[in-house]
Design brief:
Layout (H helix, E strand, L loop, with lengths): L3 H7 L6 H5 L7 E5 L3 E2 L11 H14 L5 E6 L2 E6 L1 H10 L3 E6 L4 H14 L5 H14 L4 H8 L3 H9 L5 H8 L5 H8 L4 H12 L5 H11 L15 H14 L3 E6 L2 E6 L4 H12 L1
Parallel strand pairs: 2-4, 3-5
Antiparallel strand pairs: 1-5, 3-4, 6-7
Helix pairs in contact: 1-3, 3-4, 5-6, 6-8, 7-8, 10-11, 10-12
Length: 284
């Protein structure tokens, strides 16, 4: 029985994008011909796992589409705003019509709603999510904070995702394809030496290093990190633990240098907005 994740995506457990953007008094569900609905050009998601779509198609074939799509009227039919997976699964299941709600939407709203829906369901990979935030910021003049509020995220979460776009294309492709985790990718960003970053990336792809081990390597090899006595390059495990704790709290690279009970803490940031966010966290 191929219900599993497919059925769960048809029956949301919390307030859906439909419930958020359309008051119940204005929801009129219509049955629209599948062939009359064209994809959303603002859809942030570009990768759809075949197995997941097959599971969803099986659920659609047995139960129908339980949550209507959101579409907007265009000259030759309708354009999808939210519900890309449901539309694709409906086509796969051979449905001729699907339930949908028609409403007006600006280009900005099309992107926002598609992004919110995917973020709610954790359907986007990190690169797709970052590119969607970038579109909101660059095309519609949002600040990182405004973009974060639109999708119910913290500013630091959006800032950290956007930083992934600073990685080379080869690494972004690995994230998109699921060969490199978001945690590993964030660790790569902390390595400023391109040669060491590439070597660490290849080790990650081979499965030869955990996130914790990768963080330790970056902490030893990064700027401002110095080896201990004897030139062995080892770091006091207590200091390393303190660095890890600060990284988790602040969401950025932190280096601690200590000698004789005195020392220095270096906290890195990558934009003015990240600096403001750090100041907010430190003043809490």
């Amino acid at each position: 029985m191929a219900l599993g994740r497919g059925l769960s995506s048809l029956i949301p457990s919390k307030q859906t994008i439909t419930e958020q953007v359309i008051p119940s008094s204005h929801r009129e569900v219509m049955d629209l011909a599948v062939e009359k609905i064209r994809p959303n050009p603002r859809q942030p998601r570009s990768h759809f796992a075949l197995e997941d779509l097959e599971d969803l198609a099986a659920s659609v074939k047995e139960h129908g589409v339980l949550m209507p799509l959101i579409v907007t009227k265009v000259r030759d039919g309708y354009e999808l705003v939210a519900g890309e997976r449901r539309l694709r699964a409906s086509k796969e299941a051979g449905l001729k019509t699907v339930p949908a709600i028609v409403r007006d939407a600006t280009e900005q709203q099309k992107l926002e709603w598609a992004l919110i829906e995917n973020v709610q369901r954790a359907d986007l990979n990190a690169v797709e999510e970052a590119l969607a935030y970038k579109a909101l910021i660059e095309e519609f003049n949002f600040t990182q904070e405004e973009a974060a509020k639109r999708v119910g995220k913290s500013r630091s979460a959006v800032a950290n995702i956007l930083r992934l776009l600073d990685l080379p294309e080869e690494m972004l492709i690995a994230i998109r394809d699921g060969r490199l985790s978001k945690s590993h990718a964030r660790t790569l960003l902390s390595e400023s030496d391109h040669g060491k970053r590439q070597a660490l990336f290849q080790t990650m792809l081979s499965g030869g290093v955990s996130v914790r081990e990768a963080e330790a390597r970056v902490g030893i090899g990064g700027k401002g990190s110095k080896g201990g006595k004897g030139g062995g390059g080892s770091k006091d495990p207590n200091i390393a633990a303190h660095e890890k704790r600060l990284r988790e709290i602040l969401g950025t690279k932190v280096a601690i240098q200590e000698k004789g009970g005195k020392g220095r803490i270096t906290i890195e940031f990558y934009s003015k907005e990240e600096l403001i966010d750090l100041l907010d966290k430190l003043s809490e």
